[in-house]
Amino acid sequence: MQELTHYINGQHVKGTSGRFSDVFNPATGEVQAKCPLASVEEMNTAVAAAQAAQPAWAATNPQRRARVMMEFVRLLNRDMDKLAEALSREHGKTFPDAKGDIQRGLEVVEYCIGAPQMLKGEYTDGAGPGIDIYSMRQPLGVTAGITPFNFPAMIPMWMFAPALACGNAFILKPSERDPSVPLMLAELMEEAGLPKGILQVVNGDKVAVDAILDHEVIQSIGFVGSTPIAQYIYGRGCSNGKRVQCFGGAKNHMIIMPDADMDQAADALVGAGYGAAGERCMAISVAVPVGDETADRLIEKLVPRIEKLKVGPYTAGNDVDYGPVVTAEAKARILGLVETGIAQGAKLVVDGRDFKLQGYEDGFFVGAHLFDHVTPDMDIYRQEIFGPVLSTVRAGSYEEALKLAMDHEYGNGTAIFTRDGDAARDFAARVNIGMVGINVPIPVPLAYHTFGGWKKSGFGDLNQHGPDSFKFYTRTKTVTARWPSGIKEGGEFNFKPMD
Prior knowledge:
The chain is of the alpha/beta class. Helices cover 38% and strands 22% of the residues. Helix 4 packs parallel to helix 6 and helix 10 (262-274) crosses helix 11.
């Protein structure tokens, strides 16, 4: 069996803690590798190497750092299929979806090629007699990221690309469920010209996470995962004086107005609800049709589309709609919530509980489920299921539909499908959610805008990628300079305003 490694100071390093976690093939249920779980000492070794290497990288001018990013983009395109195959093998998502995972990370790297422009400061000439004032954006030093299993390529690149472009070193603690692609990305960054020690991958569990949170050298932490862990990391990291951004759970609503194109809405819901087996923080998990007639028409459109979904391993071809979930525990939790939904009175319109895939009986496959007549007090509405389960909550009016989205504790993404410009503009202006789609089911912004949820979906003042990322990974230093001329007349002891 393959034994994976850490990547520290430019080398693959075997784990020394004696602790490992199993890396499964989700399609077969078989253990395919062992992932080392770092000790505090191993994390300290990585941080020390990063701290030693970072000053020289920070002193490298932004244009040269951008050229490393440019070469990294070329290498990502060169190795796209290799990376996607490794990602699908450990995560279970389809091959096209795995390539999309890499592509959305690559787009952030492309944005970071513009680092010289993003890192420019401000300058005021002649702010006072012989006085100039200017600001500089400087790197933080050693930074870190803790990333989830569901996007093992995209989210690490969302974090380390801007961090490195700003001149920082970066410690990546990826999910121990699918760690191979992060290790491959670190290798490619060094092939692109990144100095050793600037990007390091340390695999681990809570021991490694706490070592990051408590290490005095680490200046900032990024996290994506569940809300309880996001709150823990945010609280402990901030109390240790670090800059922290954490993104948590979601329960994304899609409002379907009576005037919406129902075929378009149904297609959007099927893709957004069941793609990647629902293991996306931006998945649509709640459909909110306005009016019973709209709901009946929507259900009529959804059922045949859902029943035709092709579920299978990534090796079955590019026409597979979604693959297995990541672990047996995830499968059991999803099916447990389905049973809870039935017990609490929701109507199970499409029942995927008996789904079995011949030849893959031990895999972590979950059939597609569709609920109707879900109410806000039900567990399947309140909790993030993170599986191929779509709940329909019928709303009597637009205001009731808007209130559902606004009252939920999560505020990651939402969407409205309508032909009415007034309704769309009102929804976008009023809804208290971080990312909004208008006839777009998954409103993940492109790399030059920022990504981030509100309420219990996001903790911290700045979002991921886009301009916010350059603010997060730098500090602003302001310099007031005076070059006096003539005879010096001694010190001044009063604070005087500028003339």
